[in-house]
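Table S2 (continued). Query chain:
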Amino acid sequence: MRAAIVIVGLLAAVLAGALSLFTVGLVPAIVAVVLIVGAIVAAFFLPRGAMRGLLTLFVVIAVAAVGIGTWGAWSIVQALSDTSGNVDPPDPVALAAVESKFDIAEADQGFRIEFTMDELNAAVQDALTGETDHPIRAVSFSVIEPDFQGERGRLGFDVDFKSGGTSASGVLEVEIDAGKPALVVSDLDFGIFSLPGVAEGAASDLVDAVADFNDVLADLDGELQDLRIYTDRVSVLGIQRGAPITPDRVLDRIRSTAGSLEIDITVPDQEYAPGVDAVSVDGSSYYVALGDSLAANVGIGRPGRGYVSKFHEYVSSRDGVAYGLRNFGVSGETSSSIFDGQLDDAVAFMESNDVAYVSIDIGANDFLGHLSSGDCAADIESGQCLERLDATYVRYRSNIAEILDVISDAAPDATILFMTAYNPFSFGLASEVAFEQASSEITVRFNDIAASTAEERGMLVADGFGAIVARALVLTHMLDDPADIHPTQAGYDRLTDALVDALEGTD
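Corresponding output:
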């Protein structure tokens, strides 16, 4: 009898404790286990009749725990497997407001959108209606107030399923990882069960369907830089991948404050011979280039006039080595989007080849789109503009450290050069135009993040900012119609010189 009580009692303790843990929480689960174990110990001092009654109680507890757990699990399986019903339509007024905000944001390469909670609910609900092969009928969000000042806001969510009868709720924290939302779930209640952190993975499909912010931003082709949750709204900050940076609004602002753009527009002589008109040349040892539109030669007619080919020609002549070349540059690339392919491709190549030199320019697209936005063009020192830039600094600091670490690991014996960004609004009017002075200070602050990160890793820093400063009208296409921030042939020559200066400074 005592052996049966111990065996059945321990089984009842495990089953009741597990059921309590997943329904009412950890403390009640501990209490249930302690009480049953205490009853097992007490059984050794009870008369035989009482022991028989206690054994019966343990059997009832075990059977009930199994039954309740099975019923709860079955209801969840039904909820997740039934995709036959309809998705509730989004609120048309709120959805129209969202679409209007998207239309406005599309005018800026760098965007900032603020959703009310009704608008956020409508946007996510609209995303759900776009794909019917899921079990969710409706989702609603609410803001959970931070427990202390400075804590990042969180979103509570409630989910209704097409099957009816079973619902889910929980808490979402949204982080940004490489330009995409990364969702962290806590306190997930699913039917009768409350899932602790160890079980969150079991509901990953549900969570992805609940808050697919990528679908919400699909029309913008958006790359997120920051997402902030306030008491009554959600603010989304980011850039449109591949969208051109249009400086006309800023130029209009500069013209109105400067009165004229009558400055020296003499084009400097070019120092460096054109290089190969290709992005790939075979060799026994290589120069590898990564970056954005500058590495990708945007603004000139052929690759041989870009800084990558010119620098390749320079180091080959300097070292007396016919270096191979691999230029992985992608126009529009950011410090987040580089993780989507370019960096992986470059690393795979560097790990399987001898690499003598690596150059990278990355980050200008992270912040220049915000400088040319309505918020910053109107007042570069406004709170709205500074909010955009502050979030960009934080994201860039994290990204650039990871990028440079990856490159360093892939090419440990190479000479690695990082080239800083230039300010395309630096016309030599800083004493007359507040925007030019402020935008240069912002660019320098941004460059300092990358420069210090590169120097900490023993890399060389090429002064791309100094190469163009005060001469952007001459060295870029800013005088073209439409204006273009990319370098001319002379501008690419100056960027080549920045790389050469950084390299020769080590001799």
